[in-house]
Amino acid sequence: MNQQWIIVYLLLVACTHLSHQKSTPDSSTYIAAVVEYPPIYSTNSSETLRINSDAYVELIKNASLHNTDIIVFPEDGLTTIQLPEREKMGEWTTIIPSASANYIPCSQNTIEVSKTLKKISCAARDNNIYVVINIAEKAPCYDVPCPRDKVFYYNSNVVFDRTGKIIARYRKTNLFKEYQFNVTTIPEVVSFDTDFGVKFGTFICFDILFHEPAIELTRNHQVTDFVYSTAWFSEVPFLTAVQTQMGWSFAENVNLLASGYNKPSFGNAGSGIYLGRRGIGKAIMPTATHKELLIFEVSKIKKETKYNNNNYHSMDSSTNQTKVIPFHHGTNQHILLKHDSFEAYQTFSLKGNAIETVCQNGFCCDFKVEIAKVDPNTKYRLVVFNGDRFYGDVKAGIRTCSIIQCLNDSVSSCGSVQESETIFSNIEITATFHNYKNNLIMPSTLNPDLLPLKNWTFLDHTHNDHIHVNMFSNMHTNNLVTFGIYSRNFNKNNANRISFCIVNYFIILLLTLLLSKL
Ligand SMILES: *[C@@H]1O[C@H](CO)[C@@H](O)[C@H](O)[C@H]1NC(C)=O
Ligand SMILES: *[C@@H]1O[C@H](CO)[C@@H](O)[C@H](O)[C@H]1NC(C)=O
Ligand SMILES: *[C@@H]1O[C@H](CO)[C@@H](O)[C@H](O)[C@H]1NC(C)=O
Ligand SMILES: *[C@@H]1O[C@H](CO)[C@@H](O)[C@H](O)[C@H]1NC(C)=O
Ligand SMILES: *[C@@H]1O[C@H](CO)[C@@H](O)[C@H](O)[C@H]1NC(C)=O
Ligand SMILES: *[C@@H]1O[C@H](CO)[C@@H](O)[C@H](O)[C@H]1NC(C)=O
């Protein structure tokens, strides 16, 4: 070939590489990207928003070079979580037009949105890609009762289509101690359609542990794919980030694209692309400051196959392609972890092989454990809980059956995260959940890298008035931190709210009666 032809050839190669191959409604897969992102903070709001949104634009470009159809960014990734008190929120926030406005911030000027929102809209448009961000929203308040400053602040997800148009906006329902923000009086249940034939639901961080809107979307709206932004504070042994994301996606058998805020020294890390009962596409749990774009080709879920089948059953969750960034003990790589307390748990100290039934408040778990080798430096306990706990200031119903790691024989040493040479050759846990309709029942497993264990099976069989769960592993498993079932019982906190409303209702009724007598 002469030189000219070589140049033409190179140009052609470059063009094919750059031209965007979009997935279509007929394709059986789509390409998803999630970002593990460590935001930069400066006390100057416009500097913070500028630096982080510039980084987003670079990541959007990178993703589109890999033919990504949709990219997800984390909660608070543009502002950081270091938001000021409510009075100073103005400059950190933006107006966000609702989806019904059909507004393209990049090319329209009739609504006064922030520079940041415009910039991301333009990046979506320039790169022909769906973009999901989380950003602090301000919404003028016109109706009574308004706050004194006549403005609501929301923690919101925004979705842009390939033209940069806002096609969805979701305001977080379950705030976690974020006192600057408001919540909507009726929880929003938000989903959006794409040109590749997938409908997505969206929710934020703490929402993953509640019925509204997440379970509402999977069970009542039959949504099969989710975009999820988070700034999670990992808690051992049941609620570290990837463990929880994987457990939720598995329990509901839906695809979950989870993007995590990265600041391990505060406890924030963990992102992944999860494929329901087909396991993990990719996931990372970095314990040092880390930026990464995770891209994965996701198989679409056919609704017929998912819903024709009342019993979700047998699935092997052998986690494929999981990328592991090792957890280094005692070095400058360090992730801050919260610890659950086991004082209120029913526990049983494992000394060797065991067949045990452990119960609490009428909820029983059957354990069968065989141990092939004992490492004297770690201990294990069977633990069962049925009751309420507080997440921050929110009360929540929990039922769990699990094997967890401890440092020594005292219960207070449980929830440790150590490498362990103890080898479990067989573990089987079974439990029956009555009153199950309003429950989220997740597998919960963890190793010292803060990633899920491999090679276990979780079977759930639905009967008339209960659900029977059987979780087992007969592979030789070492480095066990957590192995069990973790469930949220939504009936409990609903019950509290209902009784509260009923009490109010009767008081009002009584007052009305009294007044009418006067
Ligand atoms: C913040 O930074 C912007 C430039 O990005 C500058 O114009 C502005 O004056 C700064 N504000 C303060 C309070 O320093
Ligand atoms: C984005 O792409 C550029 C060029 O390929 C690369 O140098 C950079 O590391 C990428 N950034 C991320 C976060 O992937
Ligand atoms: C909105 O949030 C502010 C600050 O937390 C609070 O004072 C106000 O009552 C909230 N308004 C509503 C309607 O929830
Ligand atoms: C696991 O990964 C291999 C290699 O990438 C692939 O061939 C196989 O289909 C994957 N299995 C599942 C269950 O996704
Ligand atoms: C068990 O471990 C905990 C935590 O390391 C420690 O504080 C406690 O003293 C230990 N107890 C015993 C009995 O060794
Ligand atoms: C999981 O099981 C597969 C086959 O069943 C095996 O090849 C693989 O080594 C196992 N992985 C682990 C971590 O035990």
Automatic annotation (TrEMBL):
GO molecular function ontology, one term from the record: hydrolase activity, acting on carbon-nitrogen (but not peptide) bonds, in linear amides
InterPro entries: Biotinidase-like_euk (IPR012101), Biotinidase/VNN (IPR040154), C-N_Hydrolase (IPR003010), C-N_Hydrolase_sf (IPR036526), Vanin_C (IPR043957)
Span of the signal peptide: 1-21
Taxonomic lineage: Eukaryota, Metazoa, Ecdysozoa, Arthropoda, Hexapoda
Record-given protein name: CN hydrolase domain-containing protein
Lineage top rank: taxon: Eukaryota
Keyword entries, A-Z: Glycoprotein, Hydrolase, Membrane, Signal, Transmembrane, Transmembrane helix
PANTHER family the UniProt entry points to: BIOTINIDASE (PTHR10609:SF14), BIOTINIDASE-RELATED (PTHR10609)
Transmembrane annotation, as ranges: 497-515
SUPFAM superfamilies referenced in this protein's UniProt entry, alphabetically: Carbon-nitrogen hydrolase
Family designation: Belongs to the carbon-nitrogen hydrolase superfamily. BTD/VNN family.
Coiled-coil segments: none
Residues of the CN hydrolase domain: 30-300
